[in-house]
Structures are given as structure tokens and as C-alpha cells.
Amino acid sequence: MLPVVPRLPRMRIHQRALQTLSKMQNCQGNGRPDKEYGNWRWKPEQCILPRFDARKFLELMRGKTLAFVGDSVARNQMESLVCLLWQVDVPQNRGNKRMHKWLFKSTSTTIARVWSSWLVHRSTEAVGIAPKGIDKVFLDVPDETFMDFLPRFDVIVLSSGHWFAKRSAYVLNGNVVGGQLWWPRQAGKMQMNNVDAFGVSVETCLTSVVTNPNFTGLAIVRTWSPDHYEGGAWNTGGSCTGKVKPLDKVVRNGFTDAMYGKQIEGFRKAVKNAGQHGSRLKLMDITEPFAFRADGHPGPYRSPDPNKKTQRGPDGKPPPQDCLHWCMPGPVDTWNEMLLEIIRREFERDRS
Question: Which controlled-vocabulary keywords does the entry list (predicted)?
């Protein structure tokens, strides 16, 4: 399904809400001169996606808690939602080190965020051939960091994947079966690479969530968030400098396609594993539509430093930049329009 993205006036974000944004995603505050990236909206071909209605969202979530669980892209979406809701109700910060929480008193709605890089258990202790210090990712053990909180949540939005590009070792059934940017030569051939490991982790996490007897809510999987680095990766000189309009055609990214495919496969296996509880697991597919939004990243506008480099140098090399996360306000707000529709349909179905 390809996007049609007409220009529309931007939604106004309360100035105090902007103070809650991670500095790297506040593109206007960091001096980005163009603003069109905030005016484009995704329009599906076969349905209508309404603009975000903050009052409607809070009413649907009256007395409930919604939690974003995942990495910094999950934080990106959570901050977007808090800003959008701030248009109609100023929240109270009720968070702590373990869980960030915002309470909207008008409807007793709580928006929370729990950090979980891989969504499965992680340790730096030595395991088999993997020495102490390197991250061990236990692919068949869900992350207790958020599983302990799970019974408190009515809606949970799960997203992960990008940390599988980082240096780590993979543990399955107690054995070290592979790694990323790490593997001893004497160990022979790896049984599992990072793409396959991601797929196993998705199945583990989702199955554990929807089969947990103390969780009766709705679990939503937000699919892989595409990046738009060109000419290299985030740590090898990749760039999105000068991208100010949506792409006319997606440039395929083999790694994105592979990770997305494994995520969908893991999701389908989890639905099957869940049996009668599988209906509580929903997919929010943002990967293909947002592959068009190369213009929506902070790029070199990652800080308010007035002396930062924003253009390529005389040697043609791009300045340091972020082509993974999303500017706010910006394209990421559409994810919460999609989230609202999923919640609306699910809750209104339950009432009928």
C-alpha cells in the first residue's frame, strides 16, 4: 500500500510540551530551516485515517494505562503522543527511574514508557564462550524489566530491533549460538545471525505477553522503523543531509526488508502460540509507508549548538547526523493517529 501525502496545516503543539522532547528530536529548536516535513500526512489508498483527536483518545483511555516498551524509537513515539495530548490536558509527571509516566487527570489516563533494548533478557555476565562484559541476549527469555509491570497495563505498544545491529552474543536454550560484531574464530560457524536472532526474540516476547495470565489488555506491535542513511551506516558516514521532501520511490534496503520479514514471521508465530488469546495481539505496520519519509529525520539538526555543522564539507563528507529517529512535530505523529484507530476499533468492538 503506497502513501498519498497531501500538505496540510501542522497540528499545534503546546510550547510547554516541547520541553518534554528529547533535544535530538526537536528539529525546529535545533535550527532546521525547512518546515514542510511537518505538513505531510500519510493517506492510505483504501481507507481514511482521521487526524489525531486528543479528546477522543483520552476518553477511550479513561482510567487506563498505555505503555510504550522498547528502545529510543519507542521513546520517540511516546513523546509524540504526550505532546499531542497536551493540546487538551496538561499532564503531571509521575515517573521514576524504572518507568516514565505522565498522568492526564481529566480522564485518569496514564502514558508510560519502559526501556527495553531487546525486549528479551540481557546480561553482561559470562556465558559459555562469551566473556563477561559483552551483552548477552537471551532469545528465549522475555525481559523481566517490563514483564514485571505488565499486569498494570491496559494497552502496550512494543517495538524493537535496532539494537540487534550492536555488538552482542545470542543465547538460546542456555547455549551461545551466534553474535553480532562478535564471534571467536575457534568457535566455528555461527548457528544464528542477528536477523534470525531478532525473529526468535519477537516470537518469545509477544508469546510471553499475550499468554501472561495477569495481562488482559491489548498488545500492539509497531513494525520496524526504517532509517534513511545513504553512503554508509550511522557509524560509517551515512547521511540524509538535504532531504526535505518525501521520496517518490522507496530505495530498497536489504537489512530493513530482512528485519521486517523476521518481525512479521515472529508476530504470526506468536499469534498461533497464543491460541484463544491471539486476538489481543495487533500489528501496526509503519515500515513501508515511512520508507518514503527520508525528509522526516533530524539529520544534522541534532542539537541547538549554533556552531554545529549542517552541510557537507569541502571534501564532500557529511556532518554527524541522525537518520534513524524522527523530528517532532513530524511524521512520527502519524503513528499515533494509527494507534488511536486501533484502540478505537478494539474498544468500540468490545462495547458492542
Answer: Golgi apparatus, Membrane, Signal-anchor, Transferase, Transmembrane, Transmembrane helix
